Amino acid sequence: MDLMDAAIASGQQLTDEILYRANDKALTLLSRLGASGMSASSVAIQGMVRVGLEALREMSGSLCQLFVETLGPDLDQLVASRFIQAQLNNVLPFFQNNVDRQVANLPGSSDYGFTSQAAAIVEHAPAELQVAAAKANQKRSAPPPLAPLGSELDMAFVRNPVLRNIAAINSSEAARCLADGAHNASVAMAGSALEAVVLDAVKTVPEQATEAEGAPPEPLEKWDLADLIKVAIAIDLIGNDTGSLTNWIRGHRNLIHPGRVLRLGSEIGGEEAQLAFDILRLVCKELRTRNAE
């Protein structure tokens, strides 16, 4: 069996599964309406219309995705489109009959545009397949994410074992989120890893840190990222330029708060998430070099 045959076989099974679920929804809806004395009503008609259209849309989208994922660049869109439209046309009478029966129960009512909307879904299937294939091709040809996986960000220089573990896990999560397009989460994780490595560096010189200008009176473990960065710059753990960049992460990490986004009109995208990871990598490089001296 070649890939096209496999996709067709899987498509037929998928069609049956969606049809079964839709039938179950229709029966459940009618049972509930019958119990409330609304079996012959516009609500029943609209319910059947909704169930039918949702099932047809799910079927079209799922079949398109199935063919794209199964066949990849070898996809024959003409053959796949014909199969998808044939499957849709095969199940269409089932949904049309469900709607027509409810319309017949309520003289003078309409099918709320079911026939025309269902036909449009069938007609649109080739275009939907074309879009899905184009997105898949674009994804295949896209360059790999610039950020390495967290395992490539060596955290061995972090002396405190607890902080080393936090930095390693969160830097790895930052890279994975970046690769997956979860940009807000990536910046948040990069900021957490940054806080762990800077806190570790400050804890190696506790007297200098607590006596530095502007140092908070609280224990080091209670300092926030802004305090840690300020003191780390003051006692030359990191350079001024690097410190300014770390403040950028601190500010953008706060954009996970909706109110701040509304006030500032800023959002985090792929470039911002990549920059946050690169800043973390730069700080790690400086601290690693310092520890080696």
Largest sheet: none
* Head-to-tail CA distance between termini: 64 Å
Mean pLDDT across the residues is: 84
- How many structural domains does the protein architecture include? 2
The fraction of residues assigned to DSSP E strands is: under 5%
- Name the overall outline: elongated
Order of helices and strands: HHHHHHHHHHH
Look up the CATH topology of the largest domain.
Four Helix Bundle (Hemerythrin (Met), subunit A)
Number of helices: 11
Which CATH C-level class of the largest domain is it? Mainly Alpha
Radius of gyration computed on alpha carbons:
29 Å
What does the oligomeric state look like here?
A: single chain
Which stretches are low in confidence, meaning pLDDT under 50 for 5 or more residues running?
147-151, 257-265
Helix content: over 70%
The CATH level-2 architecture of the largest domain is identified as: Up-down Bundle
Structural class by helix and strand composition: mainly alpha
Number of strands: 0
Describe this protein's structure.
- It is built from 11 helices and no strands.
- The protein has helices at 3-35, 42-71, 77-104, 114-141, 161-179, 183-203, 206-211, 225-234, 240-253, 258-264, 270-292.
- The N and C termini lie far apart (64 Å).
- The chain is mainly alpha-helical.
- It folds into 2 domains: 3-141, no CATH class; 150-292, Four Helix Bundle (Hemerythrin (Met), subunit A) (Up-down Bundle), CATH 1.20.120.
- The radius of gyration is 29 Å and the shape is elongated.
- The chain is 75% helix and 0% strand.
